[in-house]
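Please check this protein record:
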Amino acid sequence: MIIFPYLNRSRMIMPLYDFECPKCGHAFEALLKMNEDFAKLPCPKCNASGLRKLVTPFRTNAWSTFLDRMERRISPEKFK
């Protein structure tokens, strides 16, 4: 298990697991194995257990890249 301090979403490409401590409210990220249980994972700030797993958004720039390519084909003068 690897614990990362909670970072600004704009800097993160794809965080693995986000957690929040119900006791102190500290949010952090942890890299866990697929079959590793997070129930015993302690909060790095207050050492409490019973963390809440947050929904992690998946972000990709594939759609943006596709649209840019199509725009270049349709209006190449915009990209000169």
Observations:
- Residues 9-15 have pLDDT under 50 and may be disordered.
- Residues 2-79 form one domain.
- The helical segments are 62-74.
